[in-house]
Amino acid sequence: MLENQQVDICIIGAGLTGLLLAYRLEKTDKKVVIIESRERIGGRIYTDSKEGLAPVEMGATWLFDQHTQLRSLMKELELDTFAQVIDRQVIYEASDESPYIHAKLPDNQEVSYRIRGGTAQIINALRQKLERTKIYLNKQVVAIEDHGSFIQLTLSNTTGEQKLVAKTVISTLPSNLLVNTTRFEPRLPRSFTDVANRTHTWMGESIKIALRYDEPFWRKKGATGTIFSNVGPITEMYDHSDYDDQNYALMGFLNNSFHGLSKKERKALVLRQLKKYYGNEVFNLIDYIETVWSRDKSTYHEYVSHVVPHQNQGHPIYQQAQYNGKLWFAGTETSREFPGYMEGAVRSAGYVMKSLELAKSRIS
Fold first, then answer.
1. Do 223 and 88 lie in a common domain?
2. 8 Å CB contact between 37 and 300
3. Which of 209, 251, 301, 346 has a 20 to 30 Å separation from 364 between CA atoms?
4. Helix 120-129 to helix 16-25 angle, to the nearest 10 degrees?
5. pLDDT above 90 as % of the chain
6. pLDDT at 364
7. Is 93 helix (H, G, I), strand (E, B) or coil?
8. Reported pTM
9. In terms of residue numbers, what domain contains 357?
10. CA–CA separation, 40 and 59 (whole Å)
């Protein structure tokens, strides 16, 4: 039973940061729970997987050589990567006033990597490592109240509300989402909420799409699976076939101005654009998958004013605990390094762990 349960640490959000924090905290004697509003774990890591088909990323996808802490974690979890296929010759559309061309990329392109089996492998591996941590799904934290020696959380779902008491709370939610969907008592400082309201939510405006095929027709002589377009609706697209190169897919991004259309309408526009490059073979798809992240209420909340990508991510105010050291903030938006990447999510977990250890040493 969750009702009136008392724990040492409550983590809000079962994404990469939340699960990694729980994994690290299990090496202490703390009683830890994770509260997740979705019906699944992973947060903005979301791999669509079907037997016999290429796994496709609807959320976080790539990592790079400089993402050292993420790479170290993957080594610890015994996960492998492979290089993203980006053709030297790409399809490029500068404007709708001129035809697309096959352009050549510079030789010094940075290599991006994917996780073998899908990005969700890192989520699955962390979940399997947890032995004592309880994860509660479909429960939204709607109130956080400071009671001096503890924090009381109010959790809501379709059956009503429950209370949970914790000595320490760590939120891993996007900052803008947190301050607009949670009641705080006493209120958080105005300086904090002002920054949070104007912090860009990673993935928030993204529309990710993928199409699975039996054959990689885009690899034919003179063709390419890499697309960059200022015309759209697809703005960029890549070969997204699996590690073994036995199952084939294309994955990319749509201009976010198309979020108001139906899935059927977006699919039709996507196929029309791809037909322009590849011909009628594009209609022989196995399936079409998409995720409109701005419609995910567990990720995105509208901003109070215009926000640009990466705005206020890693702001110093997120490194400061509230409620006399009982309320901490983590997640990729809070990271001082590589905010807006999986690397930032990992580094934020490390920062909070060190801060908790330092606070404990000061008390003792």
1. yes
2. no
3. 346
4. 20
5. 90
6. 37
7. strand
8. 0.95
9. 1-45+119-204+297-364
10. 14
Are 34 and 124 found together in one domain?
yes
Task: Indicate the residue among 249, 268, 295 that finishes a domain.
Answer: 295
What are the Cα distances from residue 279, in Å, to 217, 218, 271, 275?
A: 10, 10, 10, 4
At residue 263 the predicted structure's pLDDT band, cuts being 50, 70 and 90, is very high
Does residue 64 sit within a domain? no
- Provide the mean pLDDT of the chain: 95
Smallest Cα–Cα separation from 54: which of 183, 256, 211?
A: 211
Give me the helices (H) in 157-311, please.
175-181, 190-197, 263-278
* Interatomic CA distance for residues 318 and 175, integer angstroms: 9
Query: Count of CB atoms within 10 A of residue 332's CB?
Result: 30
CA–CA separation, 289 and 58 (whole Å): 8
Cβ atoms within 10 Å, residue 141: 23
Are residues 237 and 344 located together in one domain of the fold? no
- Secondary structure element (H or E) that encloses residue 136, with its range: strand 134-136
Q: How far is CA 145 from CA 11, 75, 153, 286, 287, in A?
A: 15, 39, 6, 50, 46
- Strands 5-12 vs 160-171: parallel, antiparallel or unpaired: parallel
**Region of 42 on the Ramachandran plot (φ > 0 left; ψ -120 to 50 alpha; else beta):** left
If you search the block for the tokens 């015309």, which residue do you land on? Answer: 231
For residues 316 and 240, what is the distance between their CA atoms, to the nearest angstrom?
A: 37
